[in-house]
Structures are given as structure tokens and as C-alpha cells.
Amino acid sequence: MLRPKRTKGPFRPSITHIPLAPTAAEAEIASRSGSTVADEAALESTQVAKKIPAPRLSQMIEQRTWENGQLRQELAYHQRKHAASMYLLEEVRVVVESLQQALANFQRLNEETEDGVADRECREW
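^ thats the sequence. predicted structure below, dont judge the formating
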């Protein structure tokens, strides 16, 4: 069973676009009037974040509704996979029980056959 493809909705800013706090080494460099690639990237991403308008409530509701729909589809997919796995598990249990019974029957018949051969050999002596 193939997993359904996730469709991507329109880009929405998220908290992953917030720059990370500077490390101790970066703070030391900054205190000596230096800059690092991380500083420049943080400054650039901060400027970009300032330019992105805050989403309106209706946009946020639309985004969350879309995300909920995607999550519901993913949940339904995993529930179907789980149901299929449970079906297979039950079928395997039935087969294992059947094989165990067949093996027990075989051993019993084999022992009866061996006992019958031993009895005949004893009578012949």
C-alpha cells in the first residue's frame, strides 16, 4: 500500500525562521567588533522576517484548517495500515496454531507407528 503524497500549501512563516541565539564564540567575536557568517545570516533573516506581514486571523484559520485536513488524512492512512497489520497478525496466529496441531498429530502418529513396529519385532523374536 503506497503512502499518499503530502501536498504543500502556500508558504506561511513559522517559528523555524527565527534566528538561533549566538553561541559563546560568536558573542566573543561580536564583542571585539567582528562578525561571523552566522551574525550576517541572523541579520539578514531578521530583516526578511520584518518584511513578512503578520498573517491575518482568517489566514491563520485557513492554514490550520488545511493542516488539520492533512493530519486527518495521514491519521486515516496509518489507521488503515494498522488494521491491515492486525489482520495479518491474526491470520498468522491461526496458521501457527494449525501448524502446531499438525506437528503434534504427526508426532503422535509417528510414535504409534514406531510402537507398532517395535511390538511386531518383539513378537517375531
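Residues 20-52 form one domain.
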